[in-house]
Write a structure and sequence with these properties.
By secondary structure, the chain is mainly alpha-helical. It contains four helices and no strands. It has a domain of 60 residues. The longest helix has 39 residues.
């Protein structure tokens, strides 16, 4: 559903002509915001699943370091989105 919405927005954006440089800058900022927002949503979803499993693992006597590693790994996705935001 989200992919359909993105393609519909992209088709509307490409159908319009660019009038000036401020419009081009606005589209760059919108694209960067969408990239960072979707990375944040994906990371939040993955951390909710991994965090619940990590808490269960620690409660059963597992290694806390391994649980911490698994919960930190999805945050690299947001860092990549933040990198794309500044590029």
């Amino acid at each position: 559903m989200a992919l359909t919405a993105i393609t519909m927005i992209a088709s509307v954006v490409t159908a319009q002509e660019v009038d000036n440089s401020s419009t081009v800058d606005a589209y760059k900022y919108i694209g960067a915001g969408i990239a960072l927002g979707l990375c944040g949503i994906g990371t939040g979803y993955s951390q909710s699943q991994i965090g619940a499993a990590a808490v269960g693992m620690v409660a059963e006597g597992g290694n806390f370091g391994r649980a911490l590693l698994f919960t930190v790994l999805p945050e690299t996705i947001v860092l990549f989105g933040l990198l794309a935001f500044f590029l």
